[in-house]
């Protein structure tokens, strides 16, 4: 989970914890005494969370199903359709890939971790693997959304300017992944797999022991890089696109009836732009607000419902992986047309719609 809990918040009094540090495979597992300062920990509230399982599990399952199916179909259509191998669609392909990885790593593992009274039960290797992939996919998705906004801004506001080449797009995507890896590195280096043998549970968390200033700097830097700056870039880019389209007037005199389709198209674009910015802002806002409040003063969040609130904020953030395929692809006529063509082609090849659908999904 994206809890970033301090050691004092999770360790029972007088217990000894076996702490396995990421990036330190040579040394024997060190044993550390972790003193307790606040016995009311999020992990002590797992029992409360169990009562909400009938609501939480279906919601997470729905997000996982929609996110995996939507992004998989998007990847399938772009990869199989040669004429869709454009710069914009390559960015959308990268977004779908990162969202798909986000779904299969963030959603099931976070839910299982939160609901299991024994904490993390997937082992040390999976601890470091999952807690590397989770923030990595978040960074990649956010940076790709920003790249899409910038690409559309350039194409709409500066139509005569030379478009980004496929090679430049590939370099940009490689840069996005490399920068994301670099930004994830500090969190990975401070990730520990901790076993509390006397208590019978294990945690996999970030511990910035005696580095509170560095932890806060990293946390606020993450907020700036993954939310404030991308949201600003999306807002500015799409506002400029909307204003540009408003000023576009077809040559020659136009009657009211002739201009009606153009006005309708502008309204649709404006609604789509509003949805794009709003979906990003709304889906990621709760988890960022939660993290800021926790950093300012953890007592601002109700201790009894700490884990439940955190899980709901995380669920809201994960809905972005479901929204992106709809907003960036399926609302566009070209993607829907190509999907129908792909399905029709498969249907003709295998000799039946039923087999066609199965071939596409598998």
Automatic annotation (TrEMBL):
Q: Where in the cell is it found?
A: Membrane
Report if keyword Transmembrane helix is assigned.
yes
The answer on whether this UniProt entry bears the keyword Transmembrane reads yes
Q: What is this protein called?
A: G-protein coupled receptors family 1 profile domain-containing protein
Say which domain of life the source belongs to: Eukaryota
Keywords associated with the record: G-protein coupled receptor, Membrane, Receptor, Transducer, Transmembrane, Transmembrane helix
Domain G-protein coupled receptors family 1 profile, by residue range, is 70-328
Note the Gene3D superfamilies from the entry: Rhodopsin 7-helix transmembrane proteins
Q: Name one GO molecular function term.
A: neuropeptide Y receptor activity
Quote the InterPro entries the UniProt record gives.
Answer: GPCR_Rhodpsn (IPR000276), GPCR_Rhodpsn_7TM (IPR017452), Prolrel_pep_rcpt (IPR001402)
Q: How does it sit in the membrane?
A: Multi-pass membrane protein
Quote the SMART domains the UniProt record gives: 7TM_GPCR_Srsx (SM01381)
Major localization listed first in the record, in broad terms = membrane
Q: Where are the transmembrane segments?
A: 55-79, 91-116, 136-154, 166-189, 217-241, 269-287, 307-331
In its UniProt entry, the species of origin is given as Knipowitschia caucasica
């Amino acid at each position: 989970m994206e809890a970033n809990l301090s050691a004092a918040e999770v360790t029972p009094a007088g217990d000894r914890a076996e702490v396995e540090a990421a990036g330190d495979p040579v040394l024997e597992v060190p044993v550390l005494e972790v003193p307790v300062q606040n016995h009311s920990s999020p992990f002590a509230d797992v029992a409360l969370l169990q009562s909400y399982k009938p609501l939480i599990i279906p919601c997470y399952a729905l997000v996982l199903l929609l996110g995996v199916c939507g992004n998989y179909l998007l990847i399938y259509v772009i990869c199989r359709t040669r004429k869709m191998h454009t710069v914009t669609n390559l960015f959308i392909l990268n977004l779908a890939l990162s969202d798909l990885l986000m779904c299969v790593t963030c959603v099931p593992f976070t839910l299982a971790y939160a609901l299991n009274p024994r904490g993390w039960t997937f082992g040390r290797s999976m601890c470091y693997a999952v807690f590397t992939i989770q923030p990595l996919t978040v960074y990649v998705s956010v940076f790709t959304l920003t790249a899409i906004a910038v690409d559309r801004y350039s194409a709409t506001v500066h139509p005569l300017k030379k478009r980004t080449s496929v090679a430049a797009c590939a370099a940009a995507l490689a840069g996005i992944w490399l920068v994301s890896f670099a930004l994830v590195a500090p969190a990975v280096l401070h990730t520990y797999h901790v076993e509390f043998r006397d208590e019978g549970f294990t945690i996999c968390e970030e511990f910035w022991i005696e580095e509170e200033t560095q932890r806060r700097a990293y946390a606020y830097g993450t907020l700036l890089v993954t939310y404030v700056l991308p949201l600003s870039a999306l807002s500015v880019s799409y506002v400029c696109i909307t204003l540009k389209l408003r000023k576009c007037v077809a040559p020659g005199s136009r009657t009211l009836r002739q201009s009606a389709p153009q006005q309708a198209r502008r309204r649709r674009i404006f609604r789509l732009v509003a949805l794009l910015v709003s979906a990003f802002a709304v889906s990621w806002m709760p988890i960022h607000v939660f993290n800021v409040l926790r950093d300012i003063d953890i007592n601002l969040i109700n201790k009894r419902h700490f884990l439940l609130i955190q899980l709901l904020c995380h669920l809201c953030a994960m809905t972005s992986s479901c929204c992106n395929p709809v907003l960036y692809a399926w609302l566009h006529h070209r993607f829907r047309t190509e999907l129908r063509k792909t399905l029709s082609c498969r249907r003709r090849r295998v000799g039946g719609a039923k087999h066609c659908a199965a071939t596409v999904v598998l």
